[in-house]
Amino acid sequence: MWITILIIIAVIAANLPWLSERLFLIKTLPENGKRAWMRFLEWFILYLIVGGIAIGLEIRATGGSHAQDWEFYAVTLCLFLIFALPGFIYRHDLKHLLDRARR
Prior knowledge:
It is a single chain. With 103 residues, the chain is mainly alpha-helical. The protein has four helices and no strands. It is elongated. The relative contact order is 0.15.
C-alpha cells in the first residue's frame, strides 16, 4: 500500500510546477509568472523531496537503507520526468489551445 501512495505522491509532485503559477504553491511571483528555469528547478527539488520520502519509507519498512549506484538515481530521475509529462503537455500545448478556444 505504501508503494502505491508513494507513486501517487510522485505523480502529483512531478506535475505541480507546471500546473501552478506559485513557487512551491506558496509564493506568488510578479506579473511575469514563473520562468522555465524556475519550473525545472522546482521540479528537481520536488524530485529530491519525494526521494527523501521514499528513503524514509524504506527505512521504516526494512529497518535500513540499501546502497544504490548512480544508475538507480538516473532511472528514478527519468521516471519522475515521465510522471511530469501530463503537466508539461498541459502547460506548453493544451493550455494555449484551450485559451484560444475560449476567445
